Please model this.
Amino acid sequence: MEGIGKAYLDYNATTPLDPLVIGVITESLKCEWGNPSSAHSLGKLASDRIGRSREQVAAMINAHANDIVFMSGGTEANIVALQSGLNSITKPNSKECNIVLPHVITSNVEHDSVKNYLSVQQDCGKIDLSFAQVDKASGQLRPESVLSLVNNRTCLISVMHANNETGVLMPIMEIGQALKALNVSRSQNNLPKIYFHTDSAQSLGKVKVDVKQLEVDYLTIVGHKFYGPRIGALFVKDLLTQTPLVPLLQGGGQERGFRSGTENTPMIAGLGQAAELVVQNLDKYMEHMTRCRNALISNLKDQIHDIRINFVVDPRLPNTVSLQVPQNVTAQKVLENCNGKIFASLGAACHSNSQKPSSILMASGLSPEEAGRTIRISIGRTTPDSEIEFAVKVLTEACKRA
Ligand SMILES: Cc1ncc(COP(=O)(O)O)c(C=O)c1O
Model:
């Protein structure tokens, strides 16, 4: 984009479609438009395509294809995972039904689709909700901060894999392994199983995601964050035998009854292709984003005094830079001074109309004033070096003028 005097650095908000994904979607729109439930050959063509995509998406996270259910996106996948985990304890005749109030644990930096759904359940008196706090200063979550909140009524834990604003990776594997051991002893003591969900919207296509290593029961997949279409999927461990899935949509019984509504074959085809690209190229993507990020940080530091890079911790996403501009300047002003040449954001895209400093950044240790001086820059897998150089030049001038 720098060739036309612009740099897109907002890949955590959304990514463009990869050209190969566009190709597969286009082909599918033309040839696989039959209803996947139809018994004739056009239906079979579409349902075969969906089966192939399911395998591609499963391969991206080292899962079994049977454990993938296609959905409209990350918000739906998060809500279905949460309501399913909760249902395990509230359904009539379940052995845990004597539990008066199910207890759920989440972190204080989750995406709104998790935070707001759980907060509403709490406000309705349906659950008791605890928030594990990330460490102020680092934005990191210690496994003990989550595990120490577990009690005899806990039935569900939801912690995101990577934070969309800070880029900090959360200790999902450590929590998952601890829960696996804990669930063995809970079962012996007739206590409810604790289901574990992670929202992987921001980590797929940026770091390795392996559901077996992470030891999760549910994992949210969002296509438009890894150069795929604007749909998603939910991984449910041993879906048919072990982990409950409560459908949000009832109807014709598509997706084996777990998500009714005629399948969006072309977009599902695109999601499969996007997943396959991640399988083939993840190391290359990671290497490229890390190099661009490091170049951006060192060039910005050379050019602008008094800037700070927040949340430089290990592990973190290779593509996200939380840039704190110098004192007496606001991030809003700096972005305005870029005159539309830099596409970056002050925080999550869904909060772009808010005048308030980001609650995620404040929960992660920044003061309101520091949060108001923070720009989120997120790099893509194909961002050219020249676009990084262009962004440094424009941001430097914008800070000086501000
Ligand atoms: C961490 C995280 N979870 C969930 C979502 C929701 O995805 P969607 O808006 O596609 O439903 C997003 C999107 O910004 C996200 O960043």
About this structure: The chain is about 40% helix and 15% strand. Residues 73-75, 78, 111, 113, 160, 164, 199, 201-202, 222, 224 surround pyridoxal-5'-phosphate (CB under 6 Å). The mean pLDDT is 95. The chain has two domains: 2-17+282-401, 19-277.
